[in-house]
Amino acid sequence: MAAAISRRGAALSLALARRGMCSASAPRAAAPALSSEELIRMEQDCSAHNYHPIPMVFSKGEGSHILDPEGNKYIDFLSAYSAVNQGHCHPKVLRALIEQAERLTLSSRAFYNDKFPVFAEYLTSMFGYDMMLPMNTGAEGVETAIKLARKWGYEKKNIPKNEALIVSCCGCFHGRTLGVISMSCDNDATRGFGPLVPGHLKVDFGDINGLEKIFKEHGDRICGFLFEPIQGEAGVVLPPDGYLKSVRDLCSRHNILMIDDEIQTGIARTGKMLACDWEDVRPDMVILGKALGAGVVPVSAVLADKDIMLCIKPGEHGRNVHILSSSFRHHTEGCTPFPAVRN
Ligand SMILES: Cc1ncc(COP(=O)(O)O)c(C=O)c1O
Question: What is the pTM of this model?
Answer without folding.
Answer: 0.88
